Amino acid sequence: MPLPTYTPCMRVNDGSAEDDLELISQYFKQGYSNLEILEFLKLHGVSISLSTLKRRLTSLGLSRRIFVSDGELRNAIEKELGKSGCFVGYRKMWARLRKKGIMVKRARVMTMLRELDPDGVESRRKKRLRRRAYHTKGPNFIWHTDGHDKLKPYGFSVHGCIDGFSRRLLWLEVGPTNKNPEVIAKYYLDAVKQLGGVPRKMRSDDGTENSVIEPLHTFLRSSHNDENAGVGCFAIGRSTANQRIEAYWSQFVKDGPGWWMNFFKDLSDLGLFNGSDPVHQECIRFCFMQILRNELHQVAELWNQHQIASSKFGNSSGPRGRPDCVFFLHHLYNSEDYKVPVDPHEIEEFIHESTMCPADFSQEFEEFALTIMNALGLQPPHDVNEGLDLYLTLITEVEKLS
């Protein structure tokens, strides 16, 4: 499935009518400045002055200065540190809090995080890397795709795609495999449908998982007449050369999945999970797949809306700003959108004709799990704690049948 439409600018091309005040409220709550909000409103055909925007913000009761006590801030940060937030720095912690309606200055979050998690702050400081320079023309000129296998021992395979210019994540998905070519092609088609076009070029690592997406992208570009159309529109090479997505993966682990790696490893170390046991694999996916999928979509949303600063080493030519801003408001960054339109009916046909992607777990295990849940009055889990309770219950029931 494509990324959820977490921001109104992702709905610009679907023809839906949007209320002006609701648009202003959503963009404000996503942390955009007044000038950025004005530019986003133009994408929806709404043109107002800065003074009008300020009046409407006042009428909505929206203010950037909301008092939050140190105790409230401490409690909120401690909750995040108790789960996947323990891997993020103060900027991303600030973004997480803002998403929950806690609007404070980043300096306060930084100070509080140093107090509550000094070891984590020091660890992140020591692991900063210097990367070589990267150059590309504009949004949708090139997309970089790759799989991430750190959660694969526990039954979860991650795959992502990032825009080379804006560093905006176009998809970040998890499933039982990231090596099935049909799965990767489905991720690609969903993104193309959502954006209404294809990039000029794509880059990926050498692997059988690209055996469908490569000819598919080449076919969709075959009728275009720019210099990148046709055979040269899909590049395959070593992972070290696929720099944009490889650079993102180093951040990805810190944004939450690192916590999941430790969580699943703890289950294994405690003898509660055996990766070589197919029933354990089914059970862990049944209990945690949707929770993890929802978290990855939140990770992508926070990444796409966080502020990317200029490299202190001066080795990055990427623009400074939020990936969503750089991607959708490219004119503010002296660039243009290189997306090439495609026939939406053709995309729908490809999606309809594509092979069914593998299910997260077998129908047999699902029937077994639902029978146990119904007998015990259990509901599907909504967070990691509920998922763990269900997992332990199902494993216990499985062992009774052994």
Helicity range: 40-55%
What class would the helix/strand composition place it in?
alpha/beta
Task: Report the major sheet.
Answer: 5 strands, mixed
* Main sheet strand line-up: 3-2-1-5-6
Number of helices: 16
What general outline do the C-alpha atoms trace?
A: globular
- Segments where pLDDT lies below 50 for 5+ residues? 311-315
Provide the β-strand percentage band. Answer: 5-15%
Rg measurement, Å: 22 Å
Q: Span between N and C termini?
A: 37 Å
- Taken in chain order, the helices and strands follow as HHHHHHHEEEHEEHEHHHHEHHH
Number of strands: 7
On the 0-100 scale, what is the average pLDDT? 87
InterPro entries: Integrase_dom_put
Organism: Desmophyllum pertusum
Protein name: Integrase core domain-containing protein
